[in-house]
Amino acid sequence: AWDVSVNDLEPDTTYYYKVGQGEHYSEVKSFTTTPAAGNDVTIGFYGDIQGAYNRFPDAIESLKSLYPDIDMSLIAGDVSDNGHIYTDWSSIDSNFGSYLSSGIWAATIGNHDSYFDAQTFTSFFNGPSNGTYSTPRNYWFTVGDMVIYNLDTEAVYSYDPDFSGQIAKMKEVFNNSDKTYKVVLMHRSSYPLNYDEADVRELHTTFDELGVDLVLSGHDHIYSRTEMYNGEKVTDG
Asked: How many CA atoms lie within 13 A of 6 on its CB side?
């Protein structure tokens, strides 16, 4: 896999590019950067895709029909179902690769994506190298008035067995940020209904300590609703 890092892009600006080498190049593609800090940002959030590759474009289009101006999209991991099998990734590319190549996307690593040090995953979703590992398995970025930490819950089985490295980095990032909102994107849930993993669940104490405003996760495969903190409620039809 090859990757390119591009710096100093202007906010809310459309850029055009093509990919290839020699005489073989893709068609011209484009993406639009997110709005400048201080402006409203619309973010789409998706749970586990996990094999539903031919139906995922329908989900994208349905969300776009409600919110046509999505500035950035996040995925809660398990993009693949069998992350060690080539056809999973080629199916992802053929079914919704055009969406990935024409927007701003960030995904966190799920257990189905983590085979072989998640090399294929990090080739598809190559984030900034500002985390705690040699490849961008965890990292952070800012968008609008948010600082978002992409936490790799699968690291507990490999390079960060007690999450201490990522917790230390997350504390540094959040404590040094002047953004209003602190957001965590992760695959396994600290607030589970189905899977009850004590080491992941214990992360909620760190989130409370740091004043994290929002945690986005997947993995549970269960739809749930709850009251807001302190019994606050929202009106939802």
From this structure: 9
